[in-house]
Specification:
The complex is a heterodimer of chains A (167) and B (266).
Chain A: H1 8-17, E1 21-22, E2 25-29, E3 36-42, E4 45-50, H2 60-74, E5 79-84, H3 97-106, E6 108-109, E7 133-137, E8 145-150, E9 156-160
Parallel strand pairs in A: 4-5, 6-9
Antiparallel strand pairs in A: 1-2, 3-4, 7-8, 8-9
Chain B: H1 6-31, H2 40-66, H3 72-77, H4 107-128, H5 134-162, H6 166-187, H7 193-198, H8 205-222, H9 245-254, H10 256-260
Helix pairs in contact in B: 1-2, 2-5, 4-5, 4-6, 4-8
Classes of the chains: A alpha/beta (167), B mainly alpha (266).
Chain lengths: 167, 266
Amino acid sequence: MILFMLPESEKLIMGTLQQVKDPEIDSISIVELGMVEKVEVRENAVFIELLPTFMGCPALDIIRSNVEKAIRESHNFHEIHVNFVYHPPWTSDRVSDEGRLRLKEFGIAPPPERIAETGEWHVDCPFCHSTYTTIDNIFGPTACRSILYCKTCKNPFEAMKPISTIM
Amino acid sequence: MKMGDEACKRALIELLYQLADDDFILAYRGSEWLGLAPHIEEDVAFSSISQDTMGHAAMFYQLLTDLGEGDVDQLAHARPSKERKNAILLEFVNGPGHYLSKPRYDWAFAVVRNYFYIQAKKIKMESLKNSSYEPLANVALKVNIELYYHLMHWRTWFVQLMNADQTARNRMETALTRAFADFDGVLSLGSFGVEMARYQLIEPEEMLKKKWEAYMQPVFDSVNLTMPVDFGKKSGDGRAGEHTADLDRALTILGEVYFEDPAAIW
């Protein structure tokens, strides 16, 4: 979503949504994750559309109620509508540049910017920035994360799993 | 899609029940493996896949709710086995025993069943991306992306075990015989299949089957396995509501918490 094109009231909402963090990665907001697809204010009602990262993610209901709570505390709307939509599908390239930094801060490598035609991908170590890393398990502790290992600093680490419509 | 058309809606609802019930029961069978998979990394991977799969089931049930079929939890938990449309192959127990005591689960069967099913599901999702029912096309696009890693996972296991020592090969062949005997049930679109294709909800069953064989043939060749001329529906037709006692037992366990208080909000 392109922020500067939004009307003033929607911009304020985006500011509030910036305070809503991923319940499992509390350094990054749902805005930085690219989960906010639409914010619309109509008179006394606000309509927010969110994109789930993965469909089976158990954090979705928590995120929804955190969004409702944040809006209720900072704004005066009679109606707050928060819905998950599936179009367009969330893809890992929706994570913003700021979001990529916040993930690293948490010790999670941001999703790779390129995926080879063979589906292969590579990420650097979020701790020592070494490129000498191996994938330990595509599947990690949450649906959106993979487990890797850095052969330079000998730390296991996680990466945000790349997800793209070319897959 | 012309939603005013009752025949079309009937076919769509039938298709959604098949998609939802397939994912729901296989995700449950996957969850029973937790702590029992061959190694700890597999425990992480398989439970992650099962969680995704249950998420897909929830989405398909949601589409049914949107069409007036009732509450999502009720659709998932409260329907008796005779109303379920899942393929019978997907409801079979993981093996003898119980996950809490003396499980003698069959890993070869898990690998074959999941690999075959996920490939069939991927073909259906590719087809559904062009479905005339737009909400389903949108969900299919999202599901399809997530399947990429599932498929890669099961294909890796399949090829490695097929090419491993004779013990592994024998176990895989036993599992293959079981899977082929009921795999027609997985590829089947049931008695509404013709309507589903006519209303362009999904491609015809025959087309899906051909695509499955085309995707599988090179993999089969690489592990020296012959594609059967026909698959079977040996244990019955799940799309018509025929099921085994395995499904009844699974639904009883799955619904235990739900039936404590169906009105509770979790």
